[in-house]
Amino acid sequence: MRNVKSKKLLRALIKLGFEVKAQSGTHVILRGFRDGVKRTFPVPIHHQIIPIGTFKSILKQAGVTEEELKEFL
């Protein structure tokens, strides 16, 4: 996936069951359970389009595959 905007990614992760725990400057901290594991990770909102490496890191921390995410984007 390419050219994913940060706010669109944030909305998709919320639809997947994560909730906003806090916001620290230009990062939103999300928290939720995935596969029985509690996961907490930041999503930057200072970029319009999230760099591909950052995008993949967010998905890894969230325990979400690109295929699962495509349903909500």
| Main beta sheet | 3 strands, antiparallel
Q: Tally the beta strands.
A: 3
Strand order of the largest sheet: 1-2-3
Question: Percent of residues in helical segments?
Answer: 25-40%
Tell me the CATH superfamily: Hypothetical protein
Which residue ranges are poorly predicted, with pLDDT under 50 across at least 5 consecutive positions?
A: none
% residues in beta strands: 25-35%
Order of helices and strands: HEEEHH
CATH third-tier fold name: Metal Transport, Frataxin, Chain A
CATH-derived architecture: 2-Layer Sandwich
What would the principal axes of the Cα set say about the shape? Answer: globular
The structural domain count equals 1
Task: Supply the number of helical segments.
Answer: 3
Output the radius of gyration: 11 Å
pLDDT averaged residue by residue = 93
Structural class: alpha+beta
In words, what does this structure look like?
- The protein has 3 helices and 3 strands; from the N terminus they run H-E-E-E-H-H.
- With 73 residues, the chain is α+β, with helices and mostly antiparallel strands.
- A hairpin with a 2-residue loop joins strand 2 (27-34) and strand 3.
Please give the structural blueprint.
Layout: H1 6-15, E1 19-24, E2 27-34, E3 37-44, H2 52-62, H3 66-70
Can you give keywords for this protein?
3-stranded antiparallel β-sheet; 73 residues; globular; alpha+beta; Metal Transport, Frataxin, Chain A
Give a quick rundown of the structure.
This protein is an alpha+beta fold and 73 residues long. It is built from three helices and three strands. The protein has one domain (6-70): Metal Transport, Frataxin, Chain A.
